[in-house]
Amino acid sequence: MARNAQKKKPEVPTGPDFQQLRYFKPDGWLGFGMAIWAEYLSAPLYAEMYKTFGILPDEFSVLATLYDSGDVTAQTIAAVTGRPKNSVSRGVTRLLASGRIKSVTNPSDRRECFLSLRPEGRRLYERILPRCRERERTLLAGLTTAELASLDSLLMKLLLYYHQSPEGVGLERLKQLGIPSELEPDETAP
């Protein structure tokens, strides 16, 4: 589907059963619940990253995107991560100054620069990632394997729905970046 193609939005359920779900009650908001969860997951990690490695959250977003997607522009990092452009720019500036990433001007469009990890940036990310995975394991230990698979599928579905909207980068761009651009067949089953 084309990035800007109009797609009929699914109707949001409003029945009595739906109203019983915590974040879908008239006085609830899913975004708040997700923000709280993100804070529980990330805040201790970001504090540890800064204390141990001198890395700020925006630098980590840049490192993670470059590690996962290869050479991309700062604009692409902002679009994929949802971080404000000025925050990504701040992270890029610090990482360039520390020699953890490099910037190469696009010869066909000198206004554009491609960023890539230097070996030190790659090593740093690979030192931080196990700490992130351990934090996930700790906080998700109460979920069964089936619940984890469902959570993974739902998060991917939300990501894909966002990126096919006018706000997202488009599914084709996700695919170019090596990010899955469709759900696996078993992920679509109820």
**CATH topology term of the largest domain:** Arc Repressor Mutant, subunit A
Pick out the low-confidence regions.
Answer: none
Give the oligomer, counting copies of the same chain as homo and different chains as hetero: single chain
CATH architecture title of the largest domain: Orthogonal Bundle
> Could you report the average pLDDT, rounded to the nearest whole number?
86
- Could you spell the SSE succession in H and E letters? HHHHHEEHHH
In percent, how much strand structure appears in the residues?
5-15%
Number of strands: 2
The computed structural class is: mainly alpha
Number of domains: 2
Evaluate the radius of gyration: 19 Å
Helix content: 55-70%
Q: How many helix segments?
A: 8
Distance between the termini: 23 Å
Main beta sheet? 2 strands, antiparallel
Shape label = globular
Q: Which strands sit side by side, in order, in the main sheet?
A: 1-2
CATH superfamily heading of the largest domain: Winged helix-like DNA-binding domain superfamily/Winged helix DNA-binding domain
